[in-house]
Specification:
Elements (H helix, E strand, L loop, with lengths): L6 H16 L9 H37 L1 H4 L2 H11 L5 H14 L1 H63 L16 E2 L10 H12 L10 E3 L2 E3 L8 E2 L2 E3 L6 E3 L4 E7 L6 E7 L2 E11 L6 E2 L4 E5 L10 E7 L2 E3 L9
Antiparallel strand pairs: 1-3, 2-5, 3-4, 5-12, 6-11, 7-8, 7-10, 8-9, 9-11, 9-12, 12-13
């Protein structure tokens, strides 16, 4: 005979099969004790659900009962009183007068609050006054500073105008280049006594920043500046001619570095020595004793005088330049 299986046993076996399939990958079989526990939890959950449904039904019944007995809960007397209150005409003017009378009669009780309110307003007013005063002072200081700046700018403008007028009044010396002869036939261009020329400024700069000496001790046969031109002598003499006989030793007027040693052009055999922005030139020599790139000391022997280049006789042509501007050596050196 086949064994009869109860419904509860069927449910347990079905749950065991379900969990076995669910955990098939791990090949773990759910113990019967756990299956039993799961079944008990499920039965408890069903009870809980049933109780909740009963409570919901009771709540619905109570709501319908309240709606049905609404006339009993809100009696006609209550409804009439509510309508009477809503239909009352409220006179806000009378209400305001009553409130004002109440505060007037009880102002002693509210004096403390009034004083606090007044004190707070006074403090706020004082803070506003302080802020306004600070802003006013700051604006006054700014305006004063602007006035001072304008005055300073006006003074600067006046000074610039004076300087421009001074420069306009100063005499300008023409410098167009040239080589000198050996005769004393030139005239130096005169300058304005009211202001300094650029050449005078350059001469003061050289005397203040450099130490210079005579390249040769002899008479100046042709000074710096304009002179009567000839086929050999140029109109504008950019240096001075020192009347030394051929073969005289020439020394460096200042220290520096030899930048040019050449025998080309009207200068004949000549040498240039540079120190910062100042250049000295020694021309019409017969021989140069130094070479380009040499560092020279003041008074060092650098050349032998001669009669090369465009000349009318033996002499030394000596020039001083600041950048591209020539400077009269007689403004810097003394032949006394």
């Amino acid at each position: 005979m086949e064994k009869t299986i109860s419904e509860e046993e069927k449910i347990k076996r079905a749950e065991e099969i379900y969990y076995r399939r669910k955990l098939n990958n791990s090949n773990v079989r759910m113990p019967s004790s756990q299956v039993k526990e799961k079944g008990e939890n499920r039965q408890f959950s069903l009870y809980k659900k049933m109780i909740l449904q009963i409570l919901v039904c009771i709540l619905i019944y109570l709501v319908f009962s309240l709606v049905k007995e609404a006339n009993y809960m809100f009696s006609e007397n209550i409804v009439n009183k509510t309508r009477e209150v809503l239909s009352t005409d409220i006179n806000f003017g009378v209400l305001y007068n009553n409130v004002a009378t109440f505060f007037e009669n009880n102002k002693d009780h509210f004096a403390f609050i009034t004083r606090l309110w007044s004190n707070e307003e006074n403090e706020n007013q004082e803070e506003n006054n302080i802020v306004q005063n600070e802003e006013t002072n700051q604006n006054e200081n700014t305006q004063s500073q602007n006035v001072q700046n304008e005055n300073t700018q006006n003074e600067d403008n006046k000074q610039n105008i004076i300087d421009e007028n001074t420069e306009t009044q100063s005499a300008k010396v023409e410098q167009t280049g040239g080589i000198g002869g050996s005769i004393n036939d030139a005239k130096i261009v005169t300058t304005s006594a009211k202001s300094k020329t650029q050449m005078e400024i350059d001469a003061e700069y050289i005397k203040s920043n450099f130490s210079m000496a005579l390249p040769a001790k002899a008479v100046i046969t042709s000074p710096y500046g304009k002179r009567e031109p000839t086929e050999i002598v140029s109109e504008n003499h950019q240096g001075i001619d020192i009347g030394v006989p051929e073969g005289t030793t020439i020394v460096a007027a200042m220290e520096g570095k030899v930048s040019v040693v050449s025998k080309e052009g009207d200068y004949g055999i000549h040498v240039k020595i540079v120190n910062k922005d100042i250049t000295t030139i020694y021309a019409h020599c017969s021989k140069i004793l130094v070479k380009e790139g040499d560092t020279i000391k003041k008074g060092q022997k650098i050349a032998i005088s001669g009669n090369t280049g465009n000349t009318t006789g033996p002499h030394l042509h000596f020039e001083i330049r600041r950048n591209d501007r020539t400077v009269n050596p007689e403004l810097i050196l003394s032949w006394d």
